[in-house]
Each structure stands twice: as C-alpha cells, then as structure tokens.
Amino acid sequence: MASAAPQHPPVRLTVLSGPSGVGKGTVVAEVRRRHPEVWVSVSATTRPPRPGEVDGVHYHFVSDAEFDRLIADDGLLEWAEYAGNRYGTPAAPVRERLAAGAPALLEIELQGARQVRARDTDAQLVFLAPPSWGELVSRLAGRGSEPAAVQERRLAIAQAELDAAGEFDVVVVNDDVVRAADELVGLLTAPSSGSLRSGGASE
Fold first, then answer.
1. Could you report the per-residue pLDDT of 136-153, keeping only the tens digit for each?
2. Potential cystine with 79: which of 47, 55, 88, 128 (Cβ 3.0-4.6 Å)?
3. Is 195 annotated as a binding residue?
4. What's the rounded Cα separation, in Å, for the pair 179 and 188?
C-alpha cells in the first residue's frame, strides 16, 4: 500500500467584514505592512478606480459584462452590490491558496460574508467593530465627499451591519489599528478546530 501523502496543517478561509467606515481597509493594509507573508484576496469590482488605486493591487477593475461572465462561470466565491456597484471574490486564487495549505484572508461586505458562510461552513468570520457608534458616525461624516442623503443611507446600512455582529465567530474592536491587525493575524494563524470561539482573540 502506498504511503499517505504529507498532510498540510489544517487551514481555513478567514473573512473580515464590518460596517462602512470602520477601517477594514486600513487594518488590512497594516496587516500587509507588518506581516507581508499574509495572503489577502483581491476583489473584482465594477466601480471605477479612485485616484491612486492600481488594477490588480487594490481591486481587479472589470466591466459589467466581465462581472456577468464571472457569475455565469461560477468564477466568484461571493459577490454583492454595494452603493450601486458590484464587488466579488475571484474563487480560483482562494481555492489554490487553501489547497496549498496556506491561510487566506478576504475583506468583504456583510452580504458576501453570509454567502461565504453558506458555501463554506468551516470559514472563520471576523467582525471588525468600531469602539462606539459615535466614533463610527464621526468617521463616516469625516469623509466629507458625499451629500447628506448619501451619508444618511450609509449610516442606516452601517447600523444594520452592526446588528449582524452576532452572526460572526469573533469580534475585533478597531480601537487601535496596530493591535487590531495583530489580533487578526493571530486568528489567521490559529489552528483550525471544530468549534470557533466567539468574542475574543486567539492567544
């Protein structure tokens, strides 16, 4: 009988989500800066690039037709519409990463996190929360680039997203970017187990 192939340590997909304005992108950027070995999925989006954004680095910027093709070909692990644009996670790179025995991190919105949980019950869902509601309101208002009606809509969405925190396995409070980034990396590298702990960081 042939000997068994070497087994990779158990790994799982880790999903980071949270309300708009909570600082998901800032925390992930800090993870990349301090822990360059961590692999972060690059999402596809139909929205146009913002100043300074690079295709393939910040997002894969695609047309509506290209996005439709990805959906039709089951090429997205999840996708969602947010603020009039569509965002999705290309499935192939994530599957390749996990098959190689290495952890993968997704930074996505709540709709997408729910889709991932439905498709992969072993995925670890991490909710990034603000220190307080007042702090989140201040961060969203501080952007200053949107009309009041749009900001009000964003706050309503953010409140609904905060209410969904109980659906997640772990809540990380973004009261300090460096600490939150280190806590997230600790969760990424923690051994996978049958039941996930809730409401705290791995030791």
1. 988 887 666 678 888 788
2. 88
3. no
4. 14
20 annotated as a binding-site residue: yes
**Annotated binding residue 15:** no
Which domains are seen in the chain, by residue range?
A: 13-189 (3.40.50.300)
pTM of the model: 0.82
